[in-house]
Recover the amino acids of this structure.
């Protein structure tokens, strides 16, 4: 689908826990061919503190309803404003932006790893991969049991594993402490999104297991077109804009010391 700028209408704004919300946005332009891992850039109007657009991974696409969902964690005035929106409110959105994940083949065994709000691009990835006939496994990490969200929704598309920093649910510790990542479980590909230290740790483990791995970077992306240069990252091919060359990269293309 070619990128476009359009006013989308809020269908639903669901509070998931103390600081996470799921916004469902109705498009009047036909949605088609959106790739898991792509993102949208949202203009937060009526706020002097948020004159730059805010990037959000596309959480899920409902082609039947012609809608896009995005996961919003309240961290400042911009996301606070988004969390307060009501049905029938509108948002000006640029979408879809960036390059998404490479999709698995039928019968491949894949592992999706999401930490914190890094779970956002994994829902559509799990959904589409399942439809392609892949065997989907999903490893989700959060600080506490209360910080885990949408587990039942993820379980519709694959086997779910959990970690928590305090051990209140699942395996105690980071995602790299979970047995599913500590040994070779026959995965053909690993896909990851979350805090950079977590992604680097997952990338290192993927290297050790000799498993192809892609990560979705979360650099600040103000324009989404590679103009503002806010999101530049170092790669083996030189400096690249995350918003246009990514946000998804193969770990072998990143200048990470792993």
């Amino acid at each position: 689908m070619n990128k476009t700028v359009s006013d989308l209408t809020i269908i639903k704004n669901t509070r998931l826990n103390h600081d996470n919300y799921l916004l469902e946005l109705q498009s009047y332009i036909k949605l088609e061919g959106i790739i898991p891992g792509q993102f949208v850039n949202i203009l937060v109007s009526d706020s002097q503190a948020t004159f730059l657009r805010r990037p959000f991974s596309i959480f899920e696409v409902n082609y039947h309803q012609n809608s896009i969902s995005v996961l919003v964690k309240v961290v400042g005035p911009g996301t606070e404003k988004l969390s307060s929106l009501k049905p029938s409110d509108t948002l000006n959105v640029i979408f879809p932006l960036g390059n998404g994940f490479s999709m698995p083949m039928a019968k491949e065994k894949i592992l999706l790893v999401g930490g914190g709000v890094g779970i956002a691009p994994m829902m559509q990835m799990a959904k589409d991969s399942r439809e392609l006939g892949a065997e989907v496994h999903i490893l989700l990490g959060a600080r506490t049991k209360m910080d885990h969200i949408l587990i039942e929704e993820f379980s519709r598309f694959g086997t779910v594993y959990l970690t928590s920093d305090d051990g209140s649910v699942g395996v105690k510790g980071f995602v790299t402490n979970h047995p599913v990542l500590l040994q070779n479980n026959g995965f053909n590909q690993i896909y990851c999104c979350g805090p950079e230290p977590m992604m680097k740790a997952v990338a290192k483990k993927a290297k050790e297991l000799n498993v192809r791995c892609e990560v979705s970077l979360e650099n600040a992306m103000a324009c989404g077109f590679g103009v503002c240069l806010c999101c530049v990252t170092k790669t083996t091919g030189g400096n690249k804009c995350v918003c246009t060359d990514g946000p998804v990269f193969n770990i072998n293309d990143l200048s990470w010391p792993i």
